[in-house]
Amino acid sequence: MIKARIIVTLKTGVLDPQGKAIESALGNLGIDGVGSVRQGKVFDVEIEGEDAAGAKATLDAMCEQLLANTVIENYAVEIDNR
Amino acid sequence: MKTAVVLLPGLNRDRDMIAALTTITGQVPETVWQTETVIPKVDLVVVPGGFSFGDYLRCGAIAARSPVMRAVAEAAAKGVPVLGVCNGFQILCEAGLLPGALMRNAALRFVCREVKLKVANATTRFSSAYAQGQVIRCPVAHHEGNYFADDATLKTLQDGERIVFRYAEGTNPNGAIDDIAGIVNAAGTVLGMMPHPENLIEPEHGGTDGRGIFESVLGISASLAA
């Protein structure tokens, strides 16, 4: 079993109202010194088998086709090599 | 005049759309369930509003990958007019039938109110019943109507006169770029819009400004429909 983590983030320049709201809430809590917050998503995925190269291709395909909207989002795939 | 309405779990404006199409065409639309792979032969396919699949992942993302949307894409490729309203617009963008994406409203609040729309292009098959520059009333009800496209895509839309409706008179409810409320594809056969024209089609609704979209695309003259 191959374990992977996919991180989806908004592209630079795309307005993130949720991140802005979190920034403002942090200010309300008195947590100072926050430059900016951008909200993203994390997916933990298990791929059957031990073929790391094949798993990477599968993970990239699922990002391109579903997990990320590449109009507004970037994605990064991390495979757990332990 | 035959129409079809796509049904997906979590939509909630399908009944309003069916009622509107029935009133306007005099015929009850066919309904096409999410698992169906063929769209019946019709003059208009509508993807109505709601919260398909609970808006999980991103609004419209799961619905856009359902079997029925592949069938909608095939129908659109053959030139069958397709209208997506609200969640339907989000689904058409996620399915790649329209460019750009709908993001969380800039003010983060769900908006349910009436806005003004300016007809930015009255030469499309969805807007020919209106006058160029006409301002119409239309209700909106959404949380993610903040249209976004990158600079190149936006320029393509502007240069191609593919922006059909813009929020007018300071009523942009969601922060959409260039006040975009509705756009068409390059062929002019697929319209996506956030506002709900199906909710303003008979005097009992308080107005009939939304009728023009259906009358335009179905080739029904206003005098006959009245």
TrEMBL record, chain A:
PANTHER family: PHOSPHORIBOSYLFORMYLGLYCINAMIDINE SYNTHASE SUBUNIT PURS (PTHR34696:SF1). Belongs to the PurS family. InterPro entries: PurS (IPR003850), PurS-like_sf (IPR036604). Pathway: Purine metabolism; IMP biosynthesis via de novo pathway; 5-amino-1-(5-phospho-D-ribosyl)imidazole from N(2)-formyl-N(1)-(5-phospho-D-ribosyl)glycinamide: step 1/2. It comes from Jiella flava. It catalyses: N(2)-formyl-N(1)-(5-phospho-beta-D-ribosyl)glycinamide + L-glutamine + ATP + H2O = 2-formamido-N(1)-(5-O-phospho-beta-D-ribosyl)acetamidine + L-glutamate + ADP + phosphate + H(+). Keywords: ATP-binding, Cytoplasm, Ligase, Nucleotide-binding, Purine biosynthesis. Part of the phosphoribosylformylglycinamidine synthase complex involved in the purines biosynthetic pathway. Catalyzes the ATP-dependent conversion of formylglycinamide ribonucleotide (FGAR) and glutamine to yield formylglycinamidine ribonucleotide (FGAM) and glutamate. The FGAM synthase complex is composed of three subunits. PurQ produces an ammonia molecule by converting glutamine to glutamate. PurL transfers the ammonia molecule to FGAR to form FGAM in an ATP-dependent manner. Pfam families: PurS. One of its GO terms (biological process) is 'de novo' IMP biosynthetic process. Its EC number is 6.3.5.3. Gene3D superfamilies: Phosphoribosylformylglycinamidine synthase subunit PurS (3.30.1280.10). This is Phosphoribosylformylglycinamidine synthase subunit PurS. The keyword Nucleotidyltransferase does not apply. Part of the FGAM synthase complex composed of 1 PurL, 1 PurQ and 2 PurS subunits. One of its GO terms (molecular function) is phosphoribosylformylglycinamidine synthase activity. The keyword ATP-binding applies. GO terms for cellular component: cytoplasm. It is found in: Cytoplasm.
UniProtKB/TrEMBL annotation, chain B:
Its EC number is 6.3.5.3, 3.5.1.2. The keyword Amino-acid biosynthesis does not apply. Its main location: cytoplasm. InterPro entries: Class_I_gatase-like (IPR029062), PRibForGlyAmidine_synth_PurQ (IPR010075). It catalyses: L-glutamine + H2O = L-glutamate + NH4(+); N(2)-formyl-N(1)-(5-phospho-beta-D-ribosyl)glycinamide + L-glutamine + ATP + H2O = 2-formamido-N(1)-(5-O-phospho-beta-D-ribosyl)acetamidine + L-glutamate + ADP + phosphate + H(+). GO terms for biological process: 'de novo' IMP biosynthetic process. It comes from the Bacteria. Pfam families: GATase_5 (PF13507). It is found in: Cytoplasm. Keywords: ATP-binding, Cytoplasm, Glutamine amidotransferase, Hydrolase, Ligase, Nucleotide-binding, Purine biosynthesis. The active site is at C86, H196, E198. GO terms for molecular function: ATP binding; glutaminase activity; phosphoribosylformylglycinamidine synthase activity. Pathway: Purine metabolism; IMP biosynthesis via de novo pathway; 5-amino-1-(5-phospho-D-ribosyl)imidazole from N(2)-formyl-N(1)-(5-phospho-D-ribosyl)glycinamide: step 1/2. Part of the phosphoribosylformylglycinamidine synthase complex involved in the purines biosynthetic pathway. Catalyzes the ATP-dependent conversion of formylglycinamide ribonucleotide (FGAR) and glutamine to yield formylglycinamidine ribonucleotide (FGAM) and glutamate. The FGAM synthase complex is composed of three subunits. PurQ produces an ammonia molecule by converting glutamine to glutamate. PurL transfers the ammonia molecule to FGAR to form FGAM in an ATP-dependent manner. PANTHER family: PHOSPHORIBOSYLFORMYLGLYCINAMIDINE SYNTHASE SUBUNIT PURQ (PTHR47552:SF1). Part of the FGAM synthase complex composed of 1 PurL, 1 PurQ and 2 PurS subunits. HAMAP family: PurQ (MF_00421). This is Phosphoribosylformylglycinamidine synthase subunit PurQ. It comes from Jiella flava.
